[in-house]
## 1
Amino acid sequence: MFGPAKFSFGHVFAIAAPWLLGCLLLPNHLRAQETLANEAPKVSQVGATGDRIDPRSWMPETSVLYAEIAPAGLWLDHPMRGWLTSTDAFKTIWRSPEVLKARGGIFVAELAIGMKLEDIARELSEGGAYIVIDKRTDGMALLTKTSSAAWLKKYLDKLLEVARSDAKSKGQPDPVKSAEYRGVQGYQFQNVIFGSIDEWLLVTNRSPLAQAIIDRQQDASIPNLLDARWLDGFQGINASGESGSTTRVIAVQTDLEQIRQLDRGNDLFKDQAKDFGAELILGGVLSVLRHAPSASGSIEFRENGVTGELSAPTDPAWFGKSREHFVGPNQSGRAPAPLLVANSIGTLSAYRNLSEMWLRAGDLFDQNVNDQLAQADNTLTTLFSGKDFGTDILGAIEPEVQVIAVPQTFADGALSPSVKLPSFALVARLKKPEVMQKELKRTFQSFLGFLNVVGAMEGQPQIDQNMDLVNGQPLFWGEYVPDSERKYENGLPIQFNFSPAIAFVGDHVVLASHVALARQLAEKPWTSSSAASTSSDANSFLNIDFQALRQVLESNENALITQNMLEKGHSKEEATKEVGMLMSILSLLKEGSLRLSFDDRTKLELRIDAMEP
Amino acid sequence: MPIDAKTTLAEIDPAFAWQKWSPADQEPWDEQRVRLLYRRGAFGAGPKEIARGLKEGPEQCIATLLGEESQSTELARQVEVFEKESGAIAAAVRAGGDIDRLAAWWLHRMLHSPQPTLEKMTLFWHGHFATGADKVVDSELMYEQNRWLRQHALGDFRAMVHGISKDAAMLLYLDSATNRKAHPNENYARELMELFCLGEGNYTEKDVQELARCFTGWEIRRKLFRFNEYQHDEGVKTLLGRSEIESGESAIDVVLAQEAMPYFVVGKLVKFFVMDEPQASRQFLEPLVKTFIASDYSIRHVVHQILLSNLMLSLWSVGRKVRSPVEYALEIVRSMEATANLDRLAKMLRPLGQALFYPPNVKGWDGGRAWINSSTLIGRSNFVVDLLGDTNTRFAGGSLENWIRAQGIDSKEAWMEWLTKSLVAVPIPDIERDALQKGMAGRTNANGWTAPLISLSQNPRIHLS
């Protein structure tokens, strides 16, 4: 069986753990009564199985990715599981038709195999699971250390018996092919090749990879993954997590050098963003991806949340001058501390020297993007009364900027937009406030006038301009005026989500999509949010309050249902359920953050906190 | 005198052609006729609708398509529920102002409306009173026009013409938002007679000039129609032989009262429902014109008579029309009870030559053979590949394979038979059937069930209705 087999590399999912094979089988085998569970030994403690085989010693040195996954027991016994299954949101999802259908399939498979899926998962991965992607064989393999060789043999025998008798009952030929290689019995079912080596289960989609693994298992002198330099410093699932209070459940490391060679056409490795937005978000990361020899990632469970991290070794020389706008001089660029704003959905704070980025566009983008930017530069320079947009306008603000989003509230019964958008504010410090305040005020007023002229030409609502003093500093804003001749039976148009405003707070400027947010920021002294400690030393930091986000989505539930119906062709009932499920999932989450930092390693850290039990 | 496929139009007695068809031993009410009615009067049908149509019989089947029971039965409830749902979608789409999404909303109506002929007629009027969003730009105005067309699609033709003459989208599209007495705008006046009511040769250039004078003072301001009495030409006008016309409205009445009007309108309806070619003579249209006039210009009465006629249900009309892109796409979707990403579906119609809300010019889509060229033929085949490849496409809520098996189909050959019966209006010669089977065998789709449909989409006969 370990002879040649042609499989697409895209079928990597097909090698998911073979217990899924059970799910493919039909109810003809409900009569299978012999239970493997009764014969399985008790689950032993993780890592205490004695032989201490490092699975990397079996894997080929030509591999480009290696991952370790913690035993299923660790996932299933996490304290969050008990809390999660007790929540109303989970119960709603658990009883949804889609999940019920899946549960039905699992139940049938469990009956056929005679063992609970959960128990199979525990037994199969008692000593952990290990994944490798190999460049030479273009294959992917999964090795799991099961509870015992005897249990694994029984399990595989049962699985094969069920598959064969299922085919027989349908009058089909034997669906399982088998062969032996160096004393190891292997099987192929559809696109999946699998076999056992003592208590280890091997699953792969390429027979040459299976052979390579068996070769190394039997001959330690053959070069293997332990010889690969790109895997130096790998922190596996047994490495202690953050402050020792977390459990690492997935650890992965990859050979970026090889992946760059394999995927030469990919823009991610070209060190050049395709557009302005991509450069703004990813610019510095692209420099790292282009040069770093390896990258690693991990996922860790905390008592009430999940943490993820992607990182890569970093050399300051990789950024050069061209990405100084992103990382700052000598990587010193730091995001400002996120402001505390009541009921905010989230804050994005970042170091971005926008002026430098605008002026360096010729080095950063291709000709097409540069042509578009040149056109935009002309328009913006006109709009800003002849001032050069890159130098005079963007150059007038410091690189530490943040964007805040808050949900909008509309009085009950009052006319409100049919699609309710959150309001946003950009907060930045002015380099020369005494000069720039007047310039920006005048430009802002010109901009509103421009919107009125364009709006009048297109029959759009007009903007009324207003001004107020807040704490002695000016606040300018515009307000859309409803057309007295229109009835707005379906709610106000989308423009009525906006009341563009500019406020000056000390030496900062606040540019907001709605005056209420600008006024909120101008009225009270600023304090940093609780996320400030997490964001310190970060280049970019995003934090999200999932409940505020849920509030925004709930106020647009009808629009979301409609969108679902048009995008997926769902009926109203299906769309309502799917949107309801999204809300249920969000109701389980409290807050999340994404942190990007540059030091001797570039790190992208994700943290999601669940609601309090 | 029976009508068979080889009978020429000139040989057919007009009175018999438009008389009510009745089933007979030689011409039973069968699946082929139900499918024909659903192709011409709707956008195709799935197995359940075909079974219902068979059970209903011809008259009830047509009444169902036209929604004629909506005053008193279960259909009234279905219409109410559907209109509420569609209204909610429209409200959300209008809030975004995206015209492409408006097309998706309309496709949702075409696929799910319990009154499918109403949607088909709305599409007909969209091509008749062609107005393009590329020029109007404003989605709200396009929506309002679409609503007006639907409201009158099966109603009084005269009321529809009066309304469309003051429609903001129409007047903006024809550069007629301003019409001053010093410079009467002739665009709308010309199209009203040439394209909307009478056809070429039934008016003179002088009539165009006089009608334009009647419309002076008609303006669009802030997306609304208004009459500016100060810009209205109060002078004496003579239009189509009539003088002393007081207003634009009375001028429209003069146009509508022309003898050519019912022949022009009925002729277009016959072309839309029955045959692309040849063009029916006045004499041939006479029975329908009489119905049109007698019913006080009710479009519903004419459509009803066409659908239930000997000419339609004798099967003479089979294969005499080329499926429009909308018909082609939706008949495939509906026949397999599929649901799909409607935003994407709306975009996929563009390369086929029929983007909703974007007719090519004021004449609308030419239709007939013009639907087919080397580019749209490839596009039609690619449409099937894209539709089947989209993960959002489901069949009665599940996979294609499950749906096929639920129909009792257990082999690729049987599946091909079902497809040819359901989607191909005309017989397929044996030699082409062999080619289809061979083409199917050459495919290497993941599960093989999509291959027959893709193979069939490359056979030219699938484009005939």
## 2
Amino acid sequence: MTSMLPLPEFKLLQPTTVAEALEMLSANSDAKLISGGTDLLPSMKHGLFKPKVLISTKRIKGLKDISINEEGLSIGAGVTHTSLRRSETVAGFAPALLEACKAIATPTIQSMGTIGGNILLDTRCVFYNQTRFWRDSINGCLKCDGSICHVVQNKQECFAAHSADTVPVLMVMGASVVIAGLQGERTVPIESLYDIDGRDSGRLKKEEILVRVIIPKTRGEFGFRKLRVRGAIDYPLIVTAVRITPDGGRVVVSGIGPAPIEIQEVTGAIASGDFSKAAEIARSQVKPLGTHNVSPNWRRHMVEVEVRRCLEKTSSKP
Amino acid sequence: MKDSCLGRGGRKIDGMERITGRAVFTADMTRPGMLHAAFLRSPHPHARVISIDTSQAMKIEGVKSIITGEHLPINFGVIPVAQDEHALATDKVRFVGDEVAAVAAISRSIAIEATRAIEVKYEVLEPVYSIEDALNPEKPILHEGRRKASNVLRRVFQKYGDIDAGMEEADLIIDEDYFYPGSTHVPLETQTALAEWDENGKLTLHSSTQVPHYLHKALARVLQVRTQDVRVIKPAVGAGYGGKSDPFSHEFCAAELSRRTGRPVMFILDREEVFYTHRGRHPAKMSLKMGFKNNGEITGVDFKVVSPGGAYASFGVVTSYYFGVFMTLPYKLENYRFEAKRLYTNHPPCGPKRGHGAIQPRFALEMHIDKAACQLGLDPAEMRRKNGVEPNTETCNGLRITSVAIDECIEEAVKASGYNEKYGKLPLGKGIGIAGSAYMCGALHGIYQNEMPQSAVQLLVDRSGRVAIYSGTSDIGQGSNHMLAAVVAERLGIEPTDCHVLEADTALTPVDLGSYSSRVTFMAGNAALSAVNQVRERIVSAAATKLECEPSDIILSNGEVFNGVSPDRKLEFKEAVVLAESAGGTVSVVGHYKPPPIGSRFRRQSVGPSPSYSFTAQVAAVTVDCETGIVIVDKIWCAHDCGKAINPTIVEGQIEGSVYMGVGEAFLEDHTFHTSGHAKGLHFGPSILEYKIPTIHDTPEIEAIIIESNDPEGPFGAKEAGEGPQMATVPAIANAIYDAVGVWMNEAPFTPDKVLRALKNKARADKRNAKIGGAE
């Protein structure tokens, strides 16, 4: 059958080692890495990316490993959400991460999409994630093929939203990511991948590969909530992840700006068990935008509700 | 002894092939040398086309033909009085997505690439988006050259009884405004056509259409060929909901491109294009004033509606009438005044969507009734039941009412849901609401005026015992093929699976006007019944001779033909066919249905009357989260009077599907466009990621309750079930929200944001009232 929205032609390379993949990246100026492709391929159909070469991570050895070692839990970037959901190791170590994986899109997409892809998920915007015809009608936008932002006009910054469901949980768990480059591997905190400008947030340097994510052994209870308009196949309006320890905790919210937001100065409120206060603090630190059927005010109010409910749910766990 | 297939549930005769993927849809087809087509669409909401240069595009390898407005200059439109469309823009474009040029190439990719190489010069015009602008004579006119320069496509004004006297009589008058948003159908299958212009100059068009007959006529008109030379075939269709009831640009363009290239042309719209093709629910801004007596009787209805309906008329003229016509049902009403205006705006055109034109006013009317019940201290269910119309009466606007079971629908929905035990008695945040409704079973008049039957069915009974059913009906998933087989099988005492249905091929099947206005079971069912009765007579007569009994003693059942007096004397059905064929020649007959001449007192009431009406009552139970405004529908009970359920499984499916669609419109769906900035006028998100229809997670439990009023004129008493059950869903939910938290949601969809704002306003008002109360 004819594809109604044709995928542009590209050359597919399938390296078997990270080193080989890095070489291919450096040899092909117009190349992109592809893992599950659940976000990249639709975006290519929309003309958001026009790579001549796609380098698949599928056959790279080691990218699908899940293991526990002295560092903590190590999850290969190529592990699919379905594999994560089925992993007893992950279930024992990071149950909140399983919840986050379960909230992604649909079971079919979970079976293709990978944790690495989710961590590096492109930011989203109603003026950006559209077909070429639609975007051409407004002469593109700051993030692609254009020179202005339609979200907040007269601003030279991009407001496309970070919407990866797993990242807030990984952040509150103190996760770091291992990135391989031509000069070797580097390990950085996961939050360092994200930027306050939606154009660059979650993008690696061109000749780099995300290899794995490491979740350290950490004390505490962890919780996750996702607010969305409908029950499946939907990006988040707000993702919330929390950590509660006897002497404090962390709160990260996402879905409302180009980068996940670590709520500041919330430890005291969590430690004293005043979750309403913690939620109020969260509200005071966010400025979400509206969508066509959700006003900024409601979304901001919901940050407070979601954070409080997430803390309550997490603290009442047996 | 008689094993009837009527009222027996179970699988459709053609269900398995859809589940296994064996059913052939238009896009599954392929032909040697087949080309693929693509549109160039307008990036401007309103502009004059100054020039189009296709020369660079034609140079692209693989491009075979490019056509523009000059190649298809004849206008069309599904309604004869509003033929305001062209296959491709001839002078102006009127919305972002309007078709400008069409390309045929050896692949879809090349065709799309070529559309980008076409150079169009536009003179950009000021667009008209809002009701206010469309009614403002200073603003540009979308369609020039109409009799009156205006963006009002149609104004309908009707008056029955004495509205002033009605309001005078009232103990209570409620006068409020409502808004119901536009929504679109989202059929799984996108619109698709395959055109083949053969060497004899004849056109065959396979298309995902609900109206092969109207498409047939429109193709001949626009392409300027004889109707004899056009054949329209509707293969398996992946649902329509009204969205495939117009003749469309891609159908004409596929045909013209095939004529020019001499090759088959496949034209598949992508998902985004379906949102531009639209023809969905009209947004409706409504004011409703109703008078009530203390006992709940309705003394008058004064209703005004205005709808910004998009760039072309589509069914809009008819919609304008449907906005008003069903307000006189299902409750008794003597005094009624109604005004509707359907406007042209620079958006994709609205048209018919399930419950065409009647869903929006129903929302307002059913909320009004609950408001009145609250103020009068009456029970909303009982108030509705007491005021229901009665059988064999006529409404004030001239609708002839025959079978009615609105009271039974209300009783059963109330009983099943425990409404009486719950209404007004649930804790804060929990609520239950009811609403009633009525809908037509086929429009009395076809779209073009004629004296011919609305539907015909031809039967060919073969000596193998197999019955071939030829019908112009369009099964789009609703089960009309099964309905035809069941009607025929029932009369012949055979199984529906022993019938073969050949449908929707204008070269082979007798005319049926199409799958719209909930007409197929009533009209094609009656045509099938008329045909099978003739067949039965011949078989009975031949069998009676052989079995030596009176024809009236013959019984057809379980694939056998019995002497009813001594049932051991019997024949196999196919033996009886052999006898009939031997006695009188090949057993082939045609039956047809033409609605009875129902005289209306009102000449202008030509849109709306139907041979019969279906009735529905629904109860919704909801939970409202007062902190977030999020509403969860816990369950919906829908009792629907379908006359007679020929196959209850299919009727239940229609009820569930209708309620599902209602739930989507209640909470999620809103066919919106950007209202500011550079993207002003652009579709908010023409994809099913952004335009959110409910998933299974968003769908409540639905209990379908079938009520059978046995219509005197319906086939075996059957009426419609495909649209009526959606009417009451949204107001039942709105009434339940009021019961839960005490706010009236006069504007759908009920997004959490809106519900929370309503709750805050109520809290403020309550506080103020308490203060005033305290001061006294």
